[in-house]
Tryptophanase
Amino acid sequence: ELPWVEPYKIKMTEDIYISTREEREKWIEEAGFNLFNLTSEKVFVDLLTDSGTGAMSDKQWAEIMIGDESYAGSQSFLKLKKVVNEVLGLPYALPTHQGRAAENVLFSVLVKEGFVVPGNSHFDTTKGHIEFRKAHAVDCTIDEAFDIHDLHPFKGNIDVNKLEEVYKSHPKENIPFCLITVTCNTSGGQPVSMENIKAVKALSDKYGIPVYFDAARFAENAYFIKEREDAYKDKSIKEIVKEMFSYGEGFTMSAKKDGLVNIGGLLALRDENLYRTCGNFGIIYEGYLTYGGLAGRDLGALAQGLMESTEHTYLKARINQVEYLGNKLIEFGIPVQKPIGGHAVFVDALSFLPNVPREEYAAQTLAIELYKEAGIRGVEIGTLLADRDPETRLDRFPKLELLRLAIPRKTYSYNHMDYIAVALKNIYDRRNEIKSGLEIVWESPILRHFTVELKKS
Ligand code: F0G
Protein backbone atom coordinates (compact mmCIF):
# COMPACT_ATOMS: atom_id res chain seq x y z
CA GLU A 1 0.00 0.00 0.00
CA LEU A 2 1.22 3.51 -0.77
CA PRO A 3 1.64 6.02 2.06
CA TRP A 4 -0.93 8.77 2.52
CA VAL A 5 0.20 12.13 1.18
CA GLU A 6 -1.21 15.64 1.01
CA PRO A 7 -3.74 16.09 -1.82
CA TYR A 8 -2.14 19.41 -2.85
CA LYS A 9 1.21 20.88 -3.82
CA ILE A 10 2.78 24.20 -2.82
CA LYS A 11 2.62 27.24 -5.12
CA MET A 12 4.12 29.95 -2.94
CA THR A 13 6.55 29.96 -0.03
CA GLU A 14 7.33 32.43 2.76
CA ASP A 15 10.83 32.80 4.21
CA ILE A 16 11.31 32.45 7.95
CA TYR A 17 14.34 33.76 9.81
CA ILE A 18 16.47 31.24 11.69
CA SER A 19 17.61 33.01 14.85
CA THR A 20 20.32 32.06 17.32
CA ARG A 21 19.81 31.03 20.92
CA GLU A 22 21.56 34.22 22.11
CA GLU A 23 19.14 36.37 20.08
CA ARG A 24 16.14 34.50 21.44
CA GLU A 25 17.30 34.75 25.05
CA LYS A 26 17.59 38.51 24.67
CA TRP A 27 14.26 38.87 22.83
CA ILE A 28 12.23 36.81 25.28
CA GLU A 29 13.61 38.77 28.23
CA GLU A 30 12.66 42.02 26.45
CA ALA A 31 9.22 40.51 25.83
CA GLY A 32 8.67 40.02 29.57
CA PHE A 33 8.69 36.24 29.08
CA ASN A 34 5.37 36.56 27.28
CA LEU A 35 5.29 34.95 23.84
CA PHE A 36 2.42 37.22 22.73
CA ASN A 37 4.86 40.13 22.95
CA LEU A 38 7.20 38.70 20.31
CA THR A 39 7.02 40.13 16.82
CA SER A 40 6.69 37.42 14.20
CA GLU A 41 10.19 37.68 12.70
CA LYS A 42 11.54 36.54 16.06
CA VAL A 43 9.58 33.28 15.78
CA PHE A 44 10.80 30.38 13.65
CA VAL A 45 7.92 27.90 13.91
CA ASP A 46 4.74 29.60 15.07
CA LEU A 47 2.41 27.24 16.94
CA LEU A 48 0.67 29.96 18.95
CA THR A 49 -2.60 29.16 17.23
CA ASP A 50 -4.16 27.37 14.28
CA SER A 51 -6.53 30.33 13.94
CA GLY A 52 -6.27 32.40 10.79
CA THR A 53 -2.67 31.30 10.25
CA GLY A 54 -3.10 28.63 7.58
CA ALA A 55 -2.50 28.67 3.83
CA MET A 56 -5.33 29.13 1.32
CA SER A 57 -5.78 27.20 -1.90
CA ASP A 58 -5.46 28.69 -5.39
CA LYS A 59 -9.25 28.47 -5.73
CA GLN A 60 -9.67 30.49 -2.53
CA TRP A 61 -7.24 33.10 -3.86
CA ALA A 62 -9.28 33.18 -7.05
CA GLU A 63 -12.31 34.06 -4.90
CA ILE A 64 -10.27 36.92 -3.40
CA MET A 65 -9.78 38.28 -6.93
CA ILE A 66 -13.40 37.97 -7.99
CA GLY A 67 -14.91 39.07 -4.66
CA ASP A 68 -18.05 41.16 -5.06
CA GLU A 69 -17.73 44.21 -2.82
CA SER A 70 -21.35 45.34 -3.08
CA TYR A 71 -22.63 46.64 0.24
CA ALA A 72 -25.90 44.70 -0.12
CA GLY A 73 -26.60 41.48 -1.98
CA SER A 74 -22.97 40.61 -2.78
CA GLN A 75 -22.54 37.58 -5.07
CA SER A 76 -19.76 36.39 -2.75
CA PHE A 77 -22.26 36.36 0.12
CA LEU A 78 -24.67 34.34 -2.01
CA LYS A 79 -21.93 31.76 -2.57
CA LEU A 80 -21.38 31.55 1.17
CA LYS A 81 -25.10 31.31 1.89
CA LYS A 82 -25.42 28.48 -0.62
CA VAL A 83 -22.71 26.49 1.17
CA VAL A 84 -24.34 27.11 4.55
CA ASN A 85 -27.70 25.98 3.15
CA GLU A 86 -26.60 23.03 1.08
CA VAL A 87 -23.50 21.68 2.85
CA LEU A 88 -24.05 22.69 6.47
CA GLY A 89 -27.83 22.35 6.26
CA LEU A 90 -28.97 25.60 7.90
CA PRO A 91 -31.29 28.11 6.19
CA TYR A 92 -29.98 31.42 7.62
CA ALA A 93 -26.42 32.76 7.59
CA LEU A 94 -25.04 35.96 9.14
CA PRO A 95 -21.37 36.64 8.48
CA THR A 96 -19.32 38.19 11.31
CA HIS A 97 -15.71 39.32 11.55
CA GLN A 98 -14.67 36.40 13.79
CA GLY A 99 -16.11 33.61 15.91
CA ARG A 100 -16.35 35.74 19.04
CA ALA A 101 -18.39 38.30 17.10
CA ALA A 102 -20.90 35.59 16.17
CA GLU A 103 -21.03 34.75 19.89
CA ASN A 104 -21.64 38.40 20.69
CA VAL A 105 -24.53 38.65 18.22
CA LEU A 106 -26.25 35.42 19.28
CA PHE A 107 -25.70 35.86 23.02
CA SER A 108 -26.97 39.45 22.85
CA VAL A 109 -30.33 37.91 22.03
CA LEU A 110 -30.28 34.72 24.09
CA VAL A 111 -28.12 35.18 27.20
CA LYS A 112 -29.34 37.27 30.14
CA GLU A 113 -28.13 37.93 33.69
CA GLY A 114 -28.39 34.89 35.95
CA PHE A 115 -28.70 32.39 33.09
CA VAL A 116 -26.67 29.20 32.92
CA VAL A 117 -25.19 27.82 29.71
CA PRO A 118 -24.06 24.20 29.99
CA GLY A 119 -21.61 22.71 27.50
CA ASN A 120 -18.28 20.96 27.05
CA SER A 121 -15.43 23.23 28.23
CA HIS A 122 -16.49 26.50 26.58
CA PHE A 123 -13.74 28.39 24.78
CA ASP A 124 -12.40 31.49 26.63
CA THR A 125 -14.17 34.09 24.46
CA THR A 126 -17.38 32.09 24.68
CA LYS A 127 -17.12 31.96 28.45
CA GLY A 128 -16.18 35.63 28.37
CA HIS A 129 -19.32 36.57 26.44
CA ILE A 130 -21.43 34.52 28.86
CA GLU A 131 -19.81 35.89 32.03
CA PHE A 132 -19.78 39.45 30.69
CA ARG A 133 -23.59 39.17 30.67
CA LYS A 134 -23.48 37.97 34.31
CA ALA A 135 -24.49 34.46 33.29
CA HIS A 136 -22.58 31.24 34.01
CA ALA A 137 -20.93 28.68 31.77
CA VAL A 138 -21.21 25.21 33.30
CA ASP A 139 -18.64 22.67 32.14
CA CYS A 140 -20.24 19.25 31.66
CA THR A 141 -17.34 17.56 29.85
CA ILE A 142 -16.83 13.87 30.69
CA ASP A 143 -14.25 13.23 33.45
CA GLU A 144 -12.07 11.15 31.10
CA ALA A 145 -11.09 14.39 29.34
CA PHE A 146 -9.02 15.46 32.33
CA ASP A 147 -6.91 12.28 32.49
CA ILE A 148 -4.28 12.64 29.75
CA HIS A 149 -3.66 8.88 29.67
CA ASP A 150 -7.28 7.84 29.22
CA LEU A 151 -7.69 6.74 25.60
CA HIS A 152 -11.42 7.50 25.33
CA PRO A 153 -11.99 8.15 21.59
CA PHE A 154 -14.33 11.11 22.19
CA LYS A 155 -12.90 13.11 25.06
CA GLY A 156 -14.91 16.15 24.00
CA ASN A 157 -18.18 14.40 24.93
CA ILE A 158 -20.71 15.91 27.28
CA ASP A 159 -21.55 13.89 30.38
CA VAL A 160 -25.32 13.59 30.05
CA ASN A 161 -25.71 13.00 33.78
CA LYS A 162 -23.93 16.26 34.56
CA LEU A 163 -26.07 17.96 31.92
CA GLU A 164 -29.29 16.57 33.34
CA GLU A 165 -28.21 17.79 36.78
CA VAL A 166 -27.98 21.31 35.33
CA TYR A 167 -31.38 20.92 33.63
CA LYS A 168 -32.94 19.71 36.89
CA SER A 169 -31.44 22.34 39.15
CA HIS A 170 -32.38 25.46 37.16
CA PRO A 171 -35.69 26.67 35.80
CA LYS A 172 -36.00 26.07 32.07
CA GLU A 173 -36.33 29.83 31.39
CA ASN A 174 -32.82 30.36 32.79
CA ILE A 175 -31.14 27.89 30.44
CA PRO A 176 -31.11 29.53 27.00
CA PHE A 177 -29.33 26.62 25.31
CA CYS A 178 -26.73 23.89 25.62
CA LEU A 179 -23.55 24.60 23.67
CA ILE A 180 -21.59 21.75 22.06
CA THR A 181 -18.09 22.79 21.01
CA VAL A 182 -16.76 20.67 18.14
CA THR A 183 -13.96 19.79 18.52
CA CYS A 184 -13.46 20.71 22.15
CA ASN A 185 -10.41 22.99 22.03
CA THR A 186 -9.97 23.40 25.77
CA SER A 187 -9.87 19.65 26.48
CA GLY A 188 -7.22 19.15 23.79
CA GLY A 189 -8.91 19.41 20.39
CA GLN A 190 -10.93 16.36 21.37
CA PRO A 191 -13.95 15.28 19.33
CA VAL A 192 -17.58 14.78 20.30
CA SER A 193 -19.23 11.60 18.99
CA MET A 194 -22.43 11.65 16.96
CA GLU A 195 -23.88 9.28 19.56
CA ASN A 196 -23.19 11.89 22.24
CA ILE A 197 -24.58 14.72 20.12
CA LYS A 198 -27.78 12.71 19.64
CA ALA A 199 -27.98 11.90 23.36
CA VAL A 200 -27.54 15.59 24.26
CA LYS A 201 -30.19 16.52 21.72
CA ALA A 202 -32.65 13.91 23.08
CA LEU A 203 -32.13 14.98 26.68
CA SER A 204 -32.36 18.67 25.77
CA ASP A 205 -35.60 18.03 23.86
CA LYS A 206 -37.01 16.34 26.93
CA TYR A 207 -36.36 19.50 28.95
CA GLY A 208 -37.31 21.84 26.12
CA ILE A 209 -33.82 23.36 25.78
CA PRO A 210 -32.29 24.19 22.40
CA VAL A 211 -28.89 22.90 21.32
CA TYR A 212 -26.32 25.10 19.56
CA PHE A 213 -22.84 24.34 18.29
CA ASP A 214 -19.57 26.21 18.56
CA ALA A 215 -18.42 24.97 15.17
CA ALA A 216 -14.86 26.31 14.94
CA ARG A 217 -13.40 22.88 14.13
CA PHE A 218 -16.54 21.12 12.92
CA ALA A 219 -14.86 19.41 9.95
CA GLU A 220 -12.10 17.93 12.10
CA ASN A 221 -14.81 16.66 14.45
CA ALA A 222 -16.62 15.02 11.52
CA TYR A 223 -13.36 13.34 10.50
CA PHE A 224 -13.02 11.74 13.94
CA ILE A 225 -16.64 10.58 13.79
CA LYS A 226 -15.93 8.86 10.48
CA GLU A 227 -12.71 7.29 11.79
CA ARG A 228 -13.89 6.25 15.23
CA GLU A 229 -17.65 5.66 15.07
CA ASP A 230 -18.48 2.48 13.25
CA ALA A 231 -21.90 3.59 12.01
CA TYR A 232 -20.28 6.48 10.12
CA LYS A 233 -17.28 4.82 8.51
CA ASP A 234 -18.92 4.69 5.08
CA LYS A 235 -20.43 8.18 5.19
CA SER A 236 -18.82 11.18 3.54
CA ILE A 237 -17.61 14.10 5.66
CA LYS A 238 -20.30 16.29 4.11
CA GLU A 239 -23.00 13.77 5.09
CA ILE A 240 -21.65 13.62 8.65
CA VAL A 241 -21.45 17.41 8.93
CA LYS A 242 -25.02 17.83 7.77
CA GLU A 243 -26.30 15.24 10.22
CA MET A 244 -24.31 16.82 13.06
CA PHE A 245 -25.83 20.27 12.49
CA SER A 246 -29.29 18.76 12.04
CA TYR A 247 -29.35 18.23 15.84
CA GLY A 248 -28.90 21.94 16.56
CA GLU A 249 -30.81 25.20 16.19
CA GLY A 250 -27.71 26.82 14.76
CA PHE A 251 -24.03 27.49 15.31
CA THR A 252 -21.45 30.16 15.89
CA MET A 253 -18.28 29.58 13.94
CA SER A 254 -14.80 31.01 13.94
CA ALA A 255 -14.12 30.59 10.22
CA LYS A 256 -10.39 31.07 10.90
CA LYS A 257 -10.05 27.36 11.64
CA ASP A 258 -12.01 24.92 9.45
CA GLY A 259 -13.21 27.76 7.21
CA LEU A 260 -9.58 27.78 6.00
CA VAL A 261 -9.47 31.58 5.88
CA ASN A 262 -7.36 34.20 7.65
CA ILE A 263 -10.31 36.14 9.04
CA GLY A 264 -14.04 35.57 9.39
CA GLY A 265 -16.90 34.18 11.40
CA LEU A 266 -20.39 32.96 10.88
CA LEU A 267 -23.68 32.67 12.71
CA ALA A 268 -26.02 30.12 11.15
CA LEU A 269 -29.61 29.69 12.31
CA ARG A 270 -32.67 27.57 11.71
CA ASP A 271 -35.40 29.90 12.97
CA GLU A 272 -36.50 32.87 10.88
CA ASN A 273 -37.58 35.05 13.80
CA LEU A 274 -34.33 34.51 15.65
CA TYR A 275 -32.46 35.29 12.45
CA ARG A 276 -34.31 38.59 12.14
CA THR A 277 -33.57 39.56 15.75
CA CYS A 278 -29.93 38.52 15.49
CA GLY A 279 -29.74 40.39 12.20
CA ASN A 280 -30.42 43.65 14.05
CA PHE A 281 -27.53 43.03 16.42
CA GLY A 282 -25.41 41.94 13.47
CA ILE A 283 -26.07 45.25 11.76
CA ILE A 284 -25.12 47.39 14.74
CA TYR A 285 -22.08 45.36 15.81
CA GLU A 286 -20.73 43.93 12.58
CA GLY A 287 -22.21 45.37 9.41
CA TYR A 288 -25.07 44.85 7.01
CA LEU A 289 -26.60 41.36 6.78
CA THR A 290 -24.73 40.34 3.64
CA TYR A 291 -21.18 41.23 4.70
CA GLY A 292 -21.05 41.35 8.53
CA GLY A 293 -17.67 43.00 8.99
CA LEU A 294 -15.94 41.17 6.16
CA ALA A 295 -14.93 42.16 2.66
CA GLY A 296 -16.85 40.48 -0.15
CA ARG A 297 -13.67 38.67 -1.17
CA ASP A 298 -13.36 37.18 2.33
CA LEU A 299 -16.86 35.74 2.01
CA GLY A 300 -15.99 34.11 -1.30
CA ALA A 301 -12.76 32.62 0.08
CA LEU A 302 -14.73 31.28 3.05
CA ALA A 303 -17.39 29.67 0.85
CA GLN A 304 -14.64 27.89 -1.08
CA GLY A 305 -12.73 27.02 2.13
CA LEU A 306 -15.78 25.32 3.63
CA MET A 307 -16.15 23.18 0.51
CA GLU A 308 -12.49 22.12 0.74
CA SER A 309 -12.28 21.52 4.49
CA THR A 310 -15.19 19.08 4.28
CA GLU A 311 -13.22 16.81 1.94
CA HIS A 312 -11.92 13.63 3.56
CA THR A 313 -8.61 13.69 1.64
CA TYR A 314 -7.76 17.13 3.00
CA LEU A 315 -8.79 16.25 6.55
CA LYS A 316 -6.82 13.04 6.58
CA ALA A 317 -3.63 14.85 5.55
CA ARG A 318 -4.31 17.56 8.12
CA ILE A 319 -4.98 15.33 11.07
CA ASN A 320 -2.25 12.83 10.15
CA GLN A 321 0.31 15.61 10.43
CA VAL A 322 -0.82 16.59 13.92
CA GLU A 323 -0.87 12.93 14.93
CA TYR A 324 2.62 12.44 13.49
CA LEU A 325 3.98 15.13 15.79
CA GLY A 326 2.07 13.69 18.75
CA ASN A 327 3.37 10.19 18.10
CA LYS A 328 6.96 11.45 17.86
CA LEU A 329 6.59 13.05 21.28
CA ILE A 330 5.05 9.87 22.71
CA GLU A 331 7.99 7.89 21.26
CA PHE A 332 10.34 10.20 23.15
CA GLY A 333 8.41 9.54 26.35
CA ILE A 334 7.07 13.09 26.53
CA PRO A 335 3.72 13.32 28.39
CA VAL A 336 0.95 14.55 26.07
CA GLN A 337 -2.86 14.54 26.09
CA LYS A 338 -3.94 11.28 24.42
CA PRO A 339 -5.41 10.46 21.98
CA ILE A 340 -3.83 13.29 19.95
CA GLY A 341 -6.42 15.95 19.12
CA GLY A 342 -7.38 17.44 15.79
CA HIS A 343 -5.60 20.78 15.69
CA ALA A 344 -2.88 20.63 18.29
CA VAL A 345 -0.68 18.55 20.55
CA PHE A 346 -1.06 19.38 24.25
CA VAL A 347 2.00 18.71 26.43
CA ASP A 348 1.42 18.04 30.12
CA ALA A 349 3.77 20.54 31.74
CA LEU A 350 3.36 19.30 35.31
CA SER A 351 4.77 15.88 34.57
CA PHE A 352 7.24 17.28 32.00
CA LEU A 353 8.77 19.68 34.54
CA PRO A 354 8.32 17.89 37.89
CA ASN A 355 10.61 20.33 39.73
CA VAL A 356 8.78 23.50 38.78
CA PRO A 357 5.98 24.32 41.24
CA ARG A 358 2.55 25.19 39.83
CA GLU A 359 2.76 28.56 41.52
CA GLU A 360 5.65 29.33 39.17
CA TYR A 361 3.60 28.66 36.01
CA ALA A 362 5.04 25.37 34.78
CA ALA A 363 3.37 25.43 31.35
CA GLN A 364 4.54 28.99 30.66
CA THR A 365 8.03 28.00 31.84
CA LEU A 366 8.03 25.13 29.35
CA ALA A 367 6.74 27.41 26.59
CA ILE A 368 9.65 29.80 27.24
CA GLU A 369 12.18 26.93 27.30
CA LEU A 370 10.90 25.73 23.93
CA TYR A 371 11.17 29.19 22.46
CA LYS A 372 14.73 29.62 23.70
CA GLU A 373 15.66 26.13 22.51
CA ALA A 374 14.37 26.38 18.95
CA GLY A 375 12.39 29.56 18.24
CA ILE A 376 9.11 27.64 18.51
CA ARG A 377 6.14 29.60 19.90
CA GLY A 378 3.45 27.54 21.63
CA VAL A 379 0.83 28.80 24.05
CA GLU A 380 0.15 28.21 27.73
CA ILE A 381 -3.20 26.62 28.52
CA GLY A 382 -2.81 26.64 32.27
CA THR A 383 -2.80 28.87 35.33
CA LEU A 384 -2.03 32.13 33.53
CA LEU A 385 -4.91 31.55 31.14
CA ALA A 386 -7.24 30.52 33.97
CA ASP A 387 -6.95 34.00 35.57
CA ARG A 388 -7.51 34.73 39.25
CA ASP A 389 -10.63 33.85 41.19
CA PRO A 390 -12.80 36.99 40.92
CA GLU A 391 -13.52 36.95 44.67
CA THR A 392 -10.36 35.73 46.41
CA ARG A 393 -7.98 37.12 43.72
CA LEU A 394 -5.90 33.96 44.17
CA ASP A 395 -4.56 32.02 41.20
CA ARG A 396 -7.05 29.45 39.90
CA PHE A 397 -5.30 26.16 39.17
CA PRO A 398 -7.04 24.32 36.34
CA LYS A 399 -7.18 20.52 36.27
CA LEU A 400 -4.39 20.41 33.69
CA GLU A 401 -1.37 22.62 33.09
CA LEU A 402 -0.73 22.35 29.36
CA LEU A 403 1.51 23.69 26.62
CA ARG A 404 -0.50 23.76 23.37
CA LEU A 405 1.33 23.31 20.10
CA ALA A 406 -1.31 24.30 17.55
CA ILE A 407 -0.54 23.34 13.98
CA PRO A 408 -1.65 25.83 11.30
CA ARG A 409 -3.37 24.20 8.33
CA LYS A 410 -1.35 23.44 5.17
CA THR A 411 1.55 25.56 6.44
CA TYR A 412 4.45 23.54 7.88
CA SER A 413 6.18 20.43 6.55
CA TYR A 414 6.88 17.07 8.19
CA ASN A 415 10.48 18.30 8.64
CA HIS A 416 9.10 21.07 10.80
CA MET A 417 7.27 18.43 12.87
CA ASP A 418 10.54 16.53 13.38
CA TYR A 419 12.25 19.78 14.34
CA ILE A 420 9.59 20.52 16.98
CA ALA A 421 9.80 17.00 18.38
CA VAL A 422 13.60 17.06 18.69
CA ALA A 423 13.52 20.51 20.31
CA LEU A 424 11.12 19.24 22.97
CA LYS A 425 13.17 16.08 23.46
CA ASN A 426 16.29 18.18 24.10
CA ILE A 427 14.45 19.97 26.89
CA TYR A 428 12.98 16.72 28.20
CA ASP A 429 16.49 15.24 28.45
CA ARG A 430 17.53 18.05 30.78
CA ARG A 431 14.20 18.47 32.56
CA ASN A 432 15.61 17.70 36.01
CA GLU A 433 17.94 20.68 35.78
CA ILE A 434 14.97 23.03 35.35
CA LYS A 435 14.05 23.79 38.94
CA SER A 436 12.37 27.17 38.90
CA GLY A 437 9.77 28.94 36.84
CA LEU A 438 8.43 32.47 36.53
CA GLU A 439 6.74 35.11 38.62
CA ILE A 440 4.38 37.90 37.62
CA VAL A 441 5.67 41.48 37.42
CA TRP A 442 2.49 43.01 35.96
CA GLU A 443 -0.91 41.65 34.97
CA SER A 444 -4.30 42.95 33.85
CA PRO A 445 -7.38 42.10 35.93
CA ILE A 446 -8.93 39.87 33.23
CA LEU A 447 -7.54 37.90 30.27
CA ARG A 448 -4.12 38.49 31.79
CA HIS A 449 -2.25 35.93 29.66
CA PHE A 450 -2.25 38.21 26.60
CA THR A 451 -0.36 41.06 28.28
CA VAL A 452 1.19 39.63 31.45
CA GLU A 453 4.83 40.54 32.17
CA LEU A 454 6.95 37.98 33.97
CA LYS A 455 10.44 37.47 35.34
CA LYS A 456 12.46 34.42 36.30
CA SER A 457 11.71 33.15 39.82
N1 F0G B 1 -14.57 28.92 19.75
C1 F0G B 1 -13.49 28.11 19.76
C2 F0G B 1 -13.64 26.66 20.05
C3 F0G B 1 -12.22 28.65 19.48
O1 F0G B 1 -11.16 27.85 19.50
C4 F0G B 1 -12.12 30.03 19.20
C5 F0G B 1 -10.83 30.63 18.91
C6 F0G B 1 -13.29 30.81 19.20
C7 F0G B 1 -14.50 30.22 19.48
C8 F0G B 1 -13.26 32.30 18.93
O2 F0G B 1 -13.08 32.53 17.60
O3 F0G B 1 -10.91 33.76 17.47
O4 F0G B 1 -12.50 33.74 15.55
O5 F0G B 1 -13.03 35.03 17.58
N2 F0G B 1 -9.73 30.06 19.13
C9 F0G B 1 -8.39 30.52 18.80
C10 F0G B 1 -7.39 29.57 19.38
C11 F0G B 1 -8.12 31.94 19.09
O6 F0G B 1 -6.18 29.90 19.33
O7 F0G B 1 -7.74 28.51 19.87
P1 F0G B 1 -12.34 33.84 17.03
